[in-house]
C-alpha cells in the first residue's frame, strides 16, 4: 500500500529502532516511544515504520511550521501515496468572548486561509475514499470537525444516465454550500444552459456535468488544475462514468435531521431563557432568543449558519457532555490506524491543556446569554477522550516526558547514533567565581576557529546586560528573548550563521528547533538553579544544539551539581559513549554538518529554488503607486506566502504591512 522512495538506507541505530517498533505494533502494543537524538534521522525511521506496517497514519506536531516541514518530508518519501496537511485554517483568529467586568462583547473575528481550508478538505476526503493516507496535523486534529458519517452521507453521488433536472442539481449544490458564480472558484459552480462546472472543496479539480432531457449525459473531470489561472491555462478533461461530490463546508446539516434538531435547539433555548429570567437576567434572555431564532432561520433556509458548529451537538444528536467528532473520528472509519506524536514532550502537554481554556471562555458566553449551554460541547477533546480514541501510538522525542515513559514501559526504541557519526557534546562544570572572565576566554578561543557560541541566562535583564558587556569587549554579539519579534529573532539567528555575530545570548529561545551546525560551544549560566529553565529535559535539549559540530562542548556554570544537572550529564555521556562505540566498530570518522544558510527556508528546499530576498522591496514598485495600492500588493504577497506554507516570510511581510498602515493613519 505505502511505497517509500529514498536513495538512503537505514543506518546507525535506525535498523534496530525500525525493527523494534514494527515488532511492537504487530504484537498489538498500544504505546511505544522512539527516543532519538537530534540529527539521528527520526523522520526517516517513522517513514520506514509506516511503509512496513501499512496502516493509515496520523502524525501530530505541536506547531504549524514543524508540521509543514514534516509534510514536505513525507510527501518526498511517499510521492505515490496520499500525504496531507491538517492544521488550523485561520491566518488570524479572535475567538468570541465576553468580559463581564467591562460589559464588553468581543465578536468572533477570523481570517480563513483558503489554501489550508482546501488542504483540510483534501485530508478528510482522502480518509473517506482511500487507505494509503498519511496526515500531518497540529493540535487542530482534536477540535470539533463534525460527524464523518454526516459528511459522507451529505455527499452527492453523480453517474452517467442519472435522472435529475437542472433545478434539482442546482438545489443539491446549494444544499452542499457550493456558491453559484460567474468565475470558477473553490467551493463554487458555474451554470450554463445545460452544463454545470463545479470546483470541489479540495480545489484540485473541476467537474463538468452535461445534462440532456433531464438526465446526466456526460461527466468530465480536469485534475491538478490551478483555479487562479483556469481562464488562461489549457484545461484537459477526461471523461468518467461516475464521481462523488463532498460538501463545500463542514457541519452541513443533513436534511432528514434538521427538523428534529431545530425542535431540540428551540427546547433548549426556552429552558435556558427561562433560567436567565428567573435569575434576574431579562436582557440576556432576550439576547439569546434573538440570536438563536436568527440562526434557526438560516439553518432552515440553507442548512447552514455562521457559527453552526455551536449547534453541532443537536445536529449530530449527541448527548450533553459527549465528546465531539474530530479528525481522529475520520481515521476511525478505517478501523485500524497508527498515531505518531512528534516532539511528544511538548505535544502531549499541549493536547492535555486545550480543553480547559476553551471551556472557561464559553462558560462566560453561556452565562450572559450569548450562547446556549450546548455550545460547550463544541470543543476540543479532553485528554482521556483523546487517549481512548487513538489505538496504537508511537511517541517521538529526544527527551520523552514522564507520561510517554510510563505508558511505554520497556517499549522504548533508542536511536542515539547519527548517520554523520557526530557525537553528543562533551560537558564541563565550571565554578561561578570569575565565570564571565572565563566565558570571555572560551568565546575568543571559539571565534579564533571561526566557530559560534550560544549563551543561556535565566532572565531577560541578564541576557541584555551580558550582551552589552561582551560587545564592550569587542565581541560581535546580540541577544534573543521573548520581547524580540519573531522576524527579528530569525534575522539574528541567520546573522549568527553568516558570521555577522559570533555569539547569541538568550533565555529559553535557544532550546529547540534551531539547526545551527556552526555552533560548537553552549554556555549555560546558573545551571544549578532548579526550575523549568534548568530541569533535566531543558538542559538535555539545550545541550543538543551543540551536537551538530565535531567540537561540540557544554559549559555548565554552577557551584553545586543538582539532580537535573546529574541526570542531563549522565544521559549526554551515556549517548556519547554509545556513539563512540558504534563509530569505532564501523570505522566512522565524525564530520561537522556543512549546511548552506539559504537552506533554512523550508519552502525553497521543497521546491529546489534559489532563496529570494526576505524583505518586500517596495522600491521596485512604481513611483506613482499610492500607499493604499502598496498595501493591497503586500496583502496579496502575504496570501501567496501562506499558500506556499512560507510562514516566516508571511510574518515578515505582515510587519511591512503594519508599517504601511500606520502611515495611512
What does this structure look like?
- Strands 3-8-2-17-18-1-19 form a seven-stranded parallel β-sheet, sandwiched between helices.
- 42% of the residues lie in helices and 17% in strands.
- The chain has 665 residues and is of the alpha/beta class.
- It is globular and about 85 Å long.
- It contains 21 helices and 25 strands.
- Residues 598-624 have low confidence and may be disordered.
Outline the fold blueprint:
Blueprint: H1 14-27, E1 31-36, H2 42-53, E2 57-60, H3 64-77, E3 82-86, E4 90-94, E5 97-99, E6 104-106, E7 109-112, H4 114-129, E8 133-137, H5 148-153, E9 156-159, H6 166-175, E10 179-180, E11 188-191, E12 195-199, E13 205-211, E14 216-223, E15 238-240, E16 242-245, H7 255-278, H8 282-302, H9 312-315, H10 327-332, E17 338-342, H11 344-367, H12 383-389, E18 392-397, H13 402-408, E19 412-415, E20 426-430, H14 435-448, E21 452-456, H15 460-472, E22 477-480, H16 486-498, E23 503-506, E24 519-524, H17 536-543, E25 553-557, H18 563-586, H19 602-607, H20 627-643, H21 647-664
Helix pairs in contact: 1-2, 7-8, 17-18, 20-21
Amino acid at each position: 500500500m505505502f511505497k517509500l522512495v529514498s536513495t538512503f538506507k537505514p543506518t546507525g541505530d535506525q535498523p534496530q529502532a525500525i525493527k523494534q517498533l514494527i515488532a511492537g505494533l504487530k504484537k498489538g502494543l498500544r504505546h511505544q516511544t522512539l527516543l532519538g537524538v537530534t540529527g539521528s534521522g527520526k523522520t526517516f525511521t517513522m517513514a520506514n515504520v509506516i511503509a512496513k506496517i501499512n496502516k493509515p497514519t496520523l502524525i501530530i506536531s505541536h506547531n504549524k511550521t514543524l508540521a509543514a516541514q514534516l509534510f514536505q518530508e513525507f510527501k518526498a518519501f511517499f510521492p505515490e501515496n496520499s500525504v496531507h496537511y491538517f492544521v488550523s485554517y485561520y491566518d488570524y483568529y479572535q475567538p468570541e468572548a465576553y468580559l463581564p467586568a467591562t460589559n464588553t462583547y468581543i465578536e468572533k473575528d477570523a481570517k480563513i486561509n483558503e489554501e489550508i481550508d482546501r488542504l483540510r478538505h483534501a485530508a478528510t476526503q482522502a480518509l473517506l475514499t482511500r487507505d494509503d493516507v498519511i496526515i500531518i496535523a497540529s493540535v487542530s486534529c482534536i477540535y470539533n470537525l463534525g460527524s464523518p458519517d454526516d459528511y459522507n452521507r451529505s455527499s452527492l453521488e453523480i453517474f452517467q444516465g442519472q435522472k435529475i433536472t437542472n433545478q434539482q442539481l442546482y438545489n443539491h449544490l446549494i444544499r452542499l454550500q457550493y456558491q453559484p458564480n460567474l468565475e470558477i472558484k473553490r467551493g463554487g459552480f458555474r451554470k450554463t444552459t445545460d452544463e454545470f462546472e463545479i470546483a470541489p472543496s479540495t480545489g484540485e479539480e473541476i467537474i463538468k456535468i452535461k445534462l440532456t432531457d433531464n438526465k446526466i449525459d456526460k461527466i468530465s473531470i480536469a485534475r491538478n488544475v490551478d483555479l487562479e489561472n483556469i481562464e488562461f491555462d489549457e484545461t484537459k478533461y477526461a471523461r468518467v462514468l461516475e464521481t462523488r461530490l463532498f460538501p463545500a463546508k463542514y457541519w452541513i446539516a443533513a436534511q432528514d435531521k434538521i427538523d428534529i434538531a431545530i425542535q431540540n435547539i428551540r427546547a433548549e433555548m426556552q429552558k435556558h431563557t427561562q433560567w436567565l429570567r428567573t435569575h434576574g437576567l431579562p436582557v440576556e434572555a432576550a439576547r439569546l432568543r434573538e440570536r438563536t431564532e436568527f440562526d434557526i432561520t438560516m439553518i432552515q433556509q440553507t442548512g447552514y449558519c455562521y457559527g453552526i458548529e455551536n449547534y453541532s451537538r443537536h445536529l449530530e444528536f449527541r448527548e450533553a457532555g459527549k465528546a465531539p467528532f474530530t479528525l481522529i473520528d475520520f481515521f476511525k472509519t478505517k478501523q485500524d490506524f497508527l498515531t505518531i506524536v512528534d516532539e511528544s514532550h511538548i505535544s502531549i502537554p499541549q493536547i492535555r491543556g486545550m480543553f480547559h481554556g476553551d471551556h472557561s471562555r464559553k462558560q462566560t458566553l453561556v452565562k450572559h446569554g450569548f450562547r446556549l449551554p450546548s455550545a460547550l460541547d463544541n470543543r476540543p477533546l479532553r485528554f482521556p477522550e483523546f487517549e481512548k480514541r487513538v489505538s496504537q501510538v508511537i511517541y517521538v522525542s529526544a527527551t520523552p516526558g514522564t507520561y510517554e515513559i510510563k505508558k511505554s514501559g520497556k517499549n522504548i526504541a533508542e536511536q542515539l547514533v547519527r548517520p554523520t557519526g557526530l557525537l553528543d557534546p562533551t560537558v564541563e562544570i565550571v565554578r561561578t567565581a570569575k565565570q564571565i572572565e572565563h566565558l570571555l576566554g572560551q568565546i575568543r578561543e571559539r571565534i579564533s576557529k571561526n566557530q559560534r557560541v550560544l549563551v543561556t541566562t535565566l532572565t531577560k535583564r541578564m541576557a541584555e546586560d551580558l550582551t552589552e558587556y561582551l560587545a564592550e569587549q569587542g565581541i560581535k554579539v546580540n541577544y534573543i528573548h521573548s520581547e524580540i519579534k519573531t522576524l527579528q529573532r530569525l534575522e539574528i539567528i541567520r546573522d549568527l550563521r553568516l558570521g555577522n555575530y559570533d555569539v547569541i545570548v538568550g533565555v529559553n529561545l535557544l532550546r529547540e528547533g534551531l539547526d545551527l551546525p556552526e555552533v560548537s560551544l553552549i554556555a549555560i549560566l546558573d545551571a544549578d538553579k532548579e526550575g523549568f529553565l534548568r530541569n533535566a529535559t531543558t538542559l538535555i535539549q539545550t545541550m543538543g544544539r551543540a551536537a551538530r559540530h565535531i567540537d561540540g562542548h557544554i559549559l555548565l556554570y554552577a557551584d553545586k551539581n543538582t539532580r537535573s544537572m546529574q541526570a542531563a550529564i549522565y544521559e549526554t555521556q551515556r549517548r556519547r559513549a554509545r556513539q563512540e562505540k558504534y563509530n569505532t566498530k564501523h570505522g566512522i570518522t565524525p564530520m561537522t554538518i556543512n549546511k548552506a544558510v539559504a537552506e533554512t527556508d523550508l519552502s525553497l528546499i521543497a521546491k529546489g529554488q534559489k532563496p529570494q530576498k526576505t524583505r518586500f522591496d517596495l522600491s521596485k514598485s512604481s513611483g506613482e503607486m499610492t500607499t493604499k495600492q502598496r498595501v493591497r500588493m503586500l496583502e496579496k504577497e502575504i496570501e501567496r506566502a501562506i499558500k506556499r506554507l512560507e510562514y516566516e516570510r508571511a510574518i515578515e511581510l505582515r510587519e511591512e504591512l503594519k508599517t504601511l498602515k500606520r502611515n495611512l493613519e
